[in-house]
């Protein structure tokens, strides 16, 4: 699946196929199979490896939850899963420890230029992050707007204001790009680590400038 | 697999089959397929749900890491995984936040009456726990000795003394039951939550008696 979403970004279009159609097909597939945001996730995974190797933090992506239905044992040593299904995650994808603190976040991207639609995020994930924030963790969403090529660190408590409005049926089904920009902190893109989001965490949560 | 290991405990033996043989077969299978410790894990999962529902802590078991090789799409909505394999985990199975602190642990059980063999634990998991401890997390192993029907909370820094001796080739390939008993804290078994290990954490890490 990584290859698939990677392919999306560097796609070569054969003659006669219109770019807009290809893109919209691919976007549909992404939504159906629940593999949004894999490109930014790869960058964050690389960044986390860098943090791990430099003893800066221990932050891992959780494995994708899968329900195993059937397993074959072609040899005594190797179990081969022959039927399984993806499950909806009940927590956010990333957590770990930084400067002695519990850290928890979700990585999301959108190709929408003007807003972040809530359909991109599971309710369970939001509620999990709300609880982690209540317990004193450092909790946020790393959010990329593809069209603007901008990545933001969005503290969960600010995100929750919009989310709760939405859940109370009165609010919008999305957050405006302008609001995200106002309420979050842009993470500059570098060579290595690609997105040094812990530097942003230092500034916001540890008051370092 | 949960059913399988559950079955182990309440096994009915058909006439003519000796209990000892059945048990030893089952034990071999357990080792091969890497699903050790599932019974205690179930109790800890239930305990964690109790903690979650009572807002005491947010602690989850990570999904089992699986490498997906092939996926079919029998309908547009449902992805069916048709070939996949279990991966060796690179972190411990449980982590989360408690009283504002990062908490990280592994759950292990052995049927050996006199020692805990290191073969029960992956090197990656131990090294992960060592690093989390260095970063200031609360890190331990919850260890059950089946024969004695005892469950212990074993702080990782004490476990590491034995592990490092073992890795330096001079030491034993296991920790003696007597040493575990001396160096760890027994978690009493109750009705609900089954193993209130956070009470033990309160005593050890927060100095409450």
If you had to describe this structure to a student in words, what would you say it looks like?
Two copies of one chain form a homodimer. By secondary structure, the first copy, chain A, is α+β, with helices and mostly antiparallel strands. Chain A has one domain (2-8, 34-205): 3-Layer(aba) Sandwich (Trna Endonuclease, Chain: A, domain 1). In chain A, 38% of the residues lie in helices and 26% in strands. The first copy, chain A, is built from seven helices and ten strands. Chain A has helices at 2-9, 19-33, 38-53, 123-134, 156-167, 177-183, 197-205; strands at 58-61, 66-72, 80-86, 94-98, 101-110, 115-117, 138-145, 150-155, 174-176, 185-186. In chain A, strands 1-4-5-7-8-10 form a six-stranded mixed β-sheet, with helices on both faces. In chain A, a hairpin with a 7-residue loop joins β2 and β3. The N and C termini of chain A lie far apart (39 Å).
């Amino acid at each position: 699946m990584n290859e698939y979403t990677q392919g999306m970004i560097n796609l070569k279009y054969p003659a006669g196929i219109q770019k807009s159609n290809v893109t919209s097909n691919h976007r549909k597939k992404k939504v159906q199979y629940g593999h949004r945001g894999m490109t930014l996730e790869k960058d964050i995974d690389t960044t986390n490896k860098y943090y791990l190797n430099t003893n800066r933090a221990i932050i891992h992506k959780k494995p994708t939850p899968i329900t195993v239905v059937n397993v074959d044992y072609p040899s005594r040593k190797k179990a081969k899963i022959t039927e399984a299904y993806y499950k909806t995650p009940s927590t956010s994808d990333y957590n770990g420890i930084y400067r002695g603190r519990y850290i928890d976040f979700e990585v999301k991207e959108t190709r929408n230029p003007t807003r972040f639609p809530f359909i991109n995020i599971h309710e369970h994930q939001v509620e999990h992050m709300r609880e982690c924030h209540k317990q004193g963790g450092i909790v946020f969403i790393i959010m990329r707007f593809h069209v603007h090529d901008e990545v933001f660190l969005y503290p969960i408590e600010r995100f929750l204001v919009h989310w709760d409005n939405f859940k109370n049926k009165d609010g919008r089904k999305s957050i405006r790009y302008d609001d995200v920009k106002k309420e979050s902190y842009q993470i500059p893109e570098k060579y290595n680590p690609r997105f040094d989001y812990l530097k942003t965490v230092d500034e916001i949560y540890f008051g370092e400038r």
